[in-house]
Amino acid sequence: MNASGIKLGLGLYTTLFIVFLYGPLAVLAILSFQTGPEGGPQFPIIEWSTYWYKHLFGLTPPSRIAPLPIEQALVRSLALAVMTMIVSTVLGVTAAQAFRKRFRGSGVVFYLIVLGMMVPGVLVGLGMALVANTLGVDRHWWGTAFVLHVVYTFPFAFLVMLAIFNRFDPSVEEAAWSLGVTPARTFRKITFPLIFPGVLSAMLFAFTLSYDEFSRTLFASGRDLTLPLAIYGTFSVEVHPNVFAFGVLTTLFSFALLGTYAVLMGLSVRRAKRMAIQEEA
Amino acid sequence: MTMAATSHDTPVETAAPSTRRQPDRTYWLLAPGVLWMLLFLVAPILMMVYVSFWTQTTFKIEPTLTLKSWITFFSSDTYLGALWTTVRIWLIVLVSTLLVGYPAALFVGLFVKNKTLSTALLVLCVIPFWTSFLIRVLAWRPMLGKEGAINMILMKLGIVTQPIEVLLFSELSVIIGMTQIYCVFMVGPIAFMLGRIDPSVIEAAQDLGASFWRIFRTIILPLSMPGVVVGAIFVSVMVLGEFATSAALSGRKVNLLGNIIVTQVGSLKWAFAAVAGVVLTILMGAVVAALLRVVDLRKEL
């Protein structure tokens, strides 16, 4: 058998595969440095410039290309993501805490929760719009769209916390209880520090998923746009490199978020190690 | 709200014996999440089914039950065409993500022995998910366009003399875009299953003189099937619920059921949108049920 030949071939293929994954994003990043306002979203690059980045922040003289309506949208998206993150994480932690005990109907409840991440946004979004219409409730990003964002992100938080609790040693909690510490204090002093890395991951999931979510938002938020809706709005009109510049910036923002997460995670792991060493000494 | 709804199935706290307290606590912890899902997930879906039987007038819907919207849906070429397009694009994307993703998963899961390297490769595949989905879709426009990167490279290399116009704003561009966006959902589960294959099984087959093709067919492929099914479920659910990729890359030439729902809601035809939604739900349920039939996941995982 010619295994090394096959391995080489598959290795080359995987390299091509990664080029396939990253190629369009690389092209988009390059074209965001096209000159403006006459340069279009295509090759060749007439002249390298940061015109479209300035255009995003309204630092260029007015031209026929309208600026993206991102300022308000960014604030809304961030607020929505933070609200969603808090509620999803709390719901995820409490539900996963309940799943540590066996109880009747746990299968049904599990599937009910997981359904939230499986049902496509078009369907829940449409359903929510219909419910709001029938009840005569106005649709807003902080109301109808927000509850759908939680429906979508709560299952992720729940699954992350379930995985954390699976590896959790309950005897430390039992020790605290048997020493007469109240359950609330035990949770704060013992349980929470132990599950903190999981909580952080759940928060990261909820925030990024909500920040990027748009099919639910499209149906369930009223007139006010969130950031993804502002981008979706450009689909039907001519695309200019300012959208590409925005894509680069929002990608950098996500990486910054990921970096913050990595730093916090590293700190919490280091603290746990230090405490373990102190206990041994 | 939470308390009122659950108080009837949890006994009153007074003098609850300690054996009863544990299940009580479980129900209290579950109540908020379960209630949230019932109110904001189950109720909207049921509402959609209900509204699909309402009467549609020009700008309004009335709760008089009728089958008219359903009859309109199944006697209209536009709607049936959208249903057929949805099924066709779903099947093509399912096959293409499998064909594109499987070899990469084979390399990462089976051929890379170094754990750090295989994790690094998987992370490399996941990183694009930290950029906006819509931006990733949009990124195909400068790639595939008439003056796009691919046409430019092909012309520089002298493979074509004129730019290929069918690359963008066609069914092909939608398929290419969806394949790129969703193939990672195939690679992950398959690589996971392949990583669990005991290497000694493959070594034994090699020692007995089996060719690579034979080993692939009799050992690797069957053992990776649960991964393929999980990946197929992910890809199917997401592709069937799609409308953004076709809106961005097809130039309105490809209309999926999702696009029909968006346009119907835009013109306040709520009942028609609801019918399309119910059809989509049924289609999705059938696909997932059929995929679960292929492999018994509970037994295999």
From TrEMBL, chain A:
<feature type="transmembrane region" description="Helical">
    <location>
        <begin position="141"/>
        <end position="165"/>
    </location>
</feature>
<keyword id="KW-1003">Cell membrane</keyword>
<feature type="domain" description="ABC transmembrane type-1">
    <location>
        <begin position="74"/>
        <end position="261"/>
    </location>
</feature>
<feature type="transmembrane region" description="Helical">
    <location>
        <begin position="12"/>
        <end position="33"/>
    </location>
</feature>
<keyword id="KW-1133">Transmembrane helix</keyword>
<feature type="transmembrane region" description="Helical">
    <location>
        <begin position="190"/>
        <end position="211"/>
    </location>
</feature>
<dbReference type="Pfam" id="PF00528">
    <property type="entry name" value="BPD_transp_1"/>
</dbReference>
<dbReference type="InterPro" id="IPR051789">
    <property type="entry name" value="Bact_Polyamine_Transport"/>
</dbReference>
<feature type="transmembrane region" description="Helical">
    <location>
        <begin position="243"/>
        <end position="267"/>
    </location>
</feature>
<keyword id="KW-0813">Transport</keyword>
<keyword id="KW-0812">Transmembrane</keyword>
<feature type="transmembrane region" description="Helical">
    <location>
        <begin position="108"/>
        <end position="135"/>
    </location>
</feature>
<feature type="transmembrane region" description="Helical">
    <location>
        <begin position="73"/>
        <end position="96"/>
    </location>
</feature>
<dbReference type="InterPro" id="IPR000515">
    <property type="entry name" value="MetI-like"/>
</dbReference>
<protein>
    <submittedName>
        <fullName>Spermidine/putrescine ABC transporter permease</fullName>
    </submittedName>
</protein>
<dbReference type="InterPro" id="IPR035906">
    <property type="entry name" value="MetI-like_sf"/>
</dbReference>
<keyword id="KW-0472">Membrane</keyword>
<comment type="similarity">
    <text>Belongs to the binding-protein-dependent transport system permease family. CysTW subfamily.</text>
</comment>
Automatic annotation (TrEMBL), chain B:
<feature type="transmembrane region" description="Helical">
    <location>
        <begin position="215"/>
        <end position="240"/>
    </location>
</feature>
<dbReference type="Pfam" id="PF00528">
    <property type="entry name" value="BPD_transp_1"/>
</dbReference>
<protein>
    <submittedName>
        <fullName>Putative spermidine/putrescine transport system permease protein</fullName>
    </submittedName>
</protein>
<keyword id="KW-0812">Transmembrane</keyword>
<dbReference type="GO" id="GO:0005886">
    <property type="term" value="C:plasma membrane"/>
</dbReference>
<feature type="transmembrane region" description="Helical">
    <location>
        <begin position="172"/>
        <end position="194"/>
    </location>
</feature>
<feature type="transmembrane region" description="Helical">
    <location>
        <begin position="270"/>
        <end position="295"/>
    </location>
</feature>
<keyword id="KW-0813">Transport</keyword>
<comment type="similarity">
    <text>Belongs to the binding-protein-dependent transport system permease family. CysTW subfamily.</text>
</comment>
<keyword id="KW-0472">Membrane</keyword>
<feature type="transmembrane region" description="Helical">
    <location>
        <begin position="89"/>
        <end position="112"/>
    </location>
</feature>
<keyword id="KW-1133">Transmembrane helix</keyword>
<feature type="domain" description="ABC transmembrane type-1">
    <location>
        <begin position="83"/>
        <end position="293"/>
    </location>
</feature>
<dbReference type="GO" id="GO:0055085">
    <property type="term" value="P:transmembrane transport"/>
</dbReference>
<dbReference type="InterPro" id="IPR035906">
    <property type="entry name" value="MetI-like_sf"/>
</dbReference>
<feature type="transmembrane region" description="Helical">
    <location>
        <begin position="27"/>
        <end position="53"/>
    </location>
</feature>
<dbReference type="InterPro" id="IPR000515">
    <property type="entry name" value="MetI-like"/>
</dbReference>
<feature type="transmembrane region" description="Helical">
    <location>
        <begin position="119"/>
        <end position="139"/>
    </location>
</feature>
<keyword id="KW-1003">Cell membrane</keyword>
